[in-house]
Amino acid sequence: MSLLFPNPSPRAAEPRLPEDRQWQPVVGWRSWKLRRTADGVVLQSLFRNECWEIGVTGARCHVCPPWMVNQHTVPHASCQCGLHAFSTTSEAVRHAELQVAPADAGREHAQPVAGAVVGWGRVIQHGRQGWRAESARPVALLETGQPLLEEAAARYGLPLVSMRGLCLLPLEYGAVLKVGVSH
What we know:
By secondary structure, the protein is of the alpha+beta class. Helices cover 13% and strands 31% of the residues.
């Protein structure tokens, strides 16, 4: 029996936390782009033009066609929707580093940044690398000395931390979801 798959029945095979744990917060790590907007520097998804809210961000489905969006819960196992996070700091940092590319001449380039998040509500495992949640909020950003980083941290009310701090600070908010581990 697994915490993520408490019932061996095929109908219950959806990778979802058990009912008694689904509202308990889980911690994870992710990467964003730092992007300057008219409102200030924001944390933007690497692959969508979605910006994270100050405080709590709620997941919405942007994957399904518009007429199907309200037809399933978010996140859902048969969709890729939800607020994504990795289960390890190293994956989030590596993911951010992969996004570093030379700036186009004459254009400001979005800067990748790694950080820690806490997620809650409906939480499901996402492959072997992490989870997707219904609600989440950032709790820290990795200090890298990037020009826009201090402004983003101030806007979101987040501490800038070392790699050690990025690993430890989120544990004050919840538990790490052990991906693919049987209990």
